[in-house]
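hey m, so remember when u said the tokens were messed up on ur end? i reran from scratch. heres the input so u can diff it against urs
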Amino acid sequence: MEETAHQAARLWGFAPDQIALAARRENIVWRAADARGAFALRLHRPGYRTAPQLQSELQWMDALVKGGLNVPRPVPAQSGALVEKVGDTLVDLLTWLPGHPIGSQGQLEVTQREDLCHDLGHVLARLHDISDAWAPPPGFTRPSWDRAGLLGDRPLWGPFWDNPGLTAAQRVTLLAARTKADRHLAAIEPGLDYGLIHADALSENILIHDGVLSLIDFDDGGWGFRDFELATFLMRFLPAPDYPALRAALLGGYATRRRVDPLTLDLFILLRALTYPGWIIPRLHEPGGAERASRAINTALPLAEAYLDTP
């Protein structure tokens, strides 16, 4: 992978000694730096996104930058292309944003937690406003976190009910929750706010610098329900003692756009939790895969059980 990174770096005019490994997550990210500044060279997981999907992601991010949102700006290669390919690896380059993540592993590592959540709600509202005002170019294609993408036979992140760590009884519970949630979502879907969403607003993907928040990692961004956006952030903090205050602060910041129905938000928190047992299936062989699968199941099951107990 190092040689792939070196070849990719040359496409943007960087020498091998001007890049350094920064992160190994869904993508492998190298920090590139020269007289032009600092940048993130992304080597994408083969097979996860197509070149047209990545091109669309970068076009959307560019529109968000032009709309005044703090997100990385795409940088064309020397060829003029936003996306290049080295072997079977798609690569691109983004500006490197200053700051550090607001937390990790479901933790919020800041002192003014409610203030931060209020600010984040406002940032997500601006993201949705800018996206709604933008006209995607011809050929724009991103994943759809719609009813089929969440609860259909082939969900975006895989059939969560087929996670091999589930017992037979647990699988029955998740399938029952899926059936009920699908009927529920179908009934309320016409009145929901739907459009482009980040879809992965975890604490690791939210940077803070001098009190200002930035969003990174738009890999899973696409079309989806706006309540799902808020639920993605909130789900990780369900066990926190101050969860009610954090939730109220986030919705208060988002209320600059619209009021969110609490019952609908609870449904989407469940739907977000259900995605993770599916997401981990192709990653079970990776380091920590079994532990992550266990956490995903242990988060989703209580929510599914509680949901099935409601009228």
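this time it looks ok to me. The chain is about 45% helix and 15% strand. if urs says something different then somethings off w ur setup not the seq
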